[in-house]
Each structure stands twice: as structure tokens, then as C-alpha cells.
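Hi, here's the filled form for the chain we discussed.

Project: internal
Contact: R.S.
Residues: 183
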Amino acid sequence: MDIACRVTARAAFFCLAVNTKECLALEAKKANGYREQNTLHKPYINICKALTLYRPVDAEKVTALWESPKEQREAIEQIGFFDFGEMHFEVYQGKGGHLKGETVLIDYAHHVVFSGDIFINVHGLTREQAAYNQYAPILMTSVDTDPALCALERRAIFQRLGEGGWQIFGAHGMMKEYRLRAE
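And the returned structure, exactly as it came back:
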């Protein structure tokens, strides 16, 4: 079993930046979270929450491991490091193409990436996920807050990857194997 397969569920759960904690706190107060603040996304997100019986977490029980940049200039910016077993991740935050505070983890030694919703493997979705995801563009116009910025964030992730085979875990779909060859 690959190292990445052993840590998929745990690593993503513990990696919260301040923006994520702020969004959870808004939801706990029954205020609009970051997704609902976009009026085009609010109806779809409310449908998703109703269908999944979503309940906000108690934000007081969530610890932000990193501060978010005050003013982010780049599409993704490094905000810290995260060690999990033998893995050593550089932690990045997206500028808000998909959603404000999107977290990305890259382990250069093991060639593993957790990309959140900035990159998902649409070809690795289950049949049910693919059917469900067809509604998002219709009800929201786009799953991304700023599609052009999200494309820049994806490009910035791939530009950071070195030569070799990579395992990329997005928030949806199966792991994607990606191979980068030197030119």
C-alpha cells in the first residue's frame, strides 16, 4: 500500500488554516459561510447541505494550524509545514479561485499532493459522484468562485512538482497518477 493511501483521510482533516476556521465559525452561528456568501452558489450549497444532513461543527473545537496571509499576492502561497509520520508537507493556501482558504499539501520526497478542490480527478469520480456533480454548473454557473483564478491555482500547483511520478488526491474522485518528465 502506498504511503499516501495510508494517510489520505487523516492529513486533510487536521490541516486547517485560519480562513477555514473562520468559515466554520460563520456556519456554526447560522451565518453564511464562504460558499453561501456568493449569491450564485447559495441555493446549490443549501440543497447540498439539506441532502447530506450537514451540521456545522463547533468552531471552538477546531484549531487553526497556520495563519492565512494578510494580503495574498500569488495564486498559491506557502503558509507552513506539516509532518505526519514519515511525510513532510509544505502547506499552501489558494487565493480563492475555488474558495477562500483552500489548503494544498505537497510532500516532495514521497511525491504526494493533497489539492483540496483546486484540482479534482473528474475522470475518477464514481458514477454517483459524476451524476451529482452535473447539477453544480447548472445551479451555480460554476463550482469555482473565480474559475480563471482557480485555473491559475492549478497551474501553480503543477509548476511546483518536480520530475517523476506523483500521486494527487483531490477532494473528489480517485487518486490521480501524474508523471512529469524532464525536457
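Let me know if anything looks off before we file it.
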